[in-house]
Description:
Elements: H1 21-56, H2 59-99, H3 105-118, H4 120-144, H5 150-156, E1 171-174, E2 178-181, H6 187-207, H7 213-229, H8 236-260, H9 262-266, H10 271-278
Antiparallel strand pairs: 1-2
Helix pairs in contact: 1-2, 1-4, 2-3, 2-4, 2-8, 6-7, 6-8
Amino acid sequence: MDSQTAVPTSPPTSYSAKKDRRSFIVLALILGFIIFTFKYWMLFCFNTIMTGYFLFSELRGATIFFAVILRILLYPLGYVKRTFDKRIRKAEEEFRKEARLTNNPLLKDKLRREWLSRNKKIVFFDWFYFCFYSMNAFVVGWIFLQPFTQARINQGVLFDFLVPKFPMTTESYIPLVGMADLTKINMTLNFLSAVGAFIVGIFEVTFHKKTRRKDLLMYLVMFPLGAYFITMWVPSGFEFSLIVFEILTVGIIIVEKITESKVFKFFKPPVEEEKKGEE
């Protein structure tokens, strides 16, 4: 084994762990940034769904429009997250190999701190991702879990032409459900949102190779149960938006895997081979 990476056979009995105040400050600044942008993200999301209602004159179409726009905007963030997940899995495997070489708890703690120091960017991004998606989930809930009253819309819209005529059209036909009022509870939509969460979990586990025990528990158990029990007493507009997000997520995963497959690469021009021939 290389002397630079070898774990000492006789580690010291103690060491002084340095407090990483800079990292703490960065994490606090990220949280502060998310809190600061909450109001503006909420206004953007609310006006996006009002734009959808302006275009389609009914809440189902507005919800689909809102989900599509939001999914497009959040795709780059999700793509970076998946890229970092691959790096973090590789880094964790390297850490486990190093940690297995010693039984000394102090040395293991030192190795863990060194690992965190080497992967600060990943830690910072994961924290930002968690904070932003938590904020986004709260905003989506704020939009759909409150009634679309005229007073609320007048206060929330940024442009007068987006103010709809009242009463708003909130009842529409939905496949597998029939006619549903998105401002009222609908247990069929509640069940379908749980099924959709389970299907998304299967795609995540299968195609993004999230096979660790905590990933399996999260994607195949916690997400479906959460989608079912947490949304049992909420207006079905939230569940319908969740279903649309789930459909878009599965569609994006399928498209990504098709573009990465050998079948798709077969139709691409052999750029590398042409360059080699020219050389």
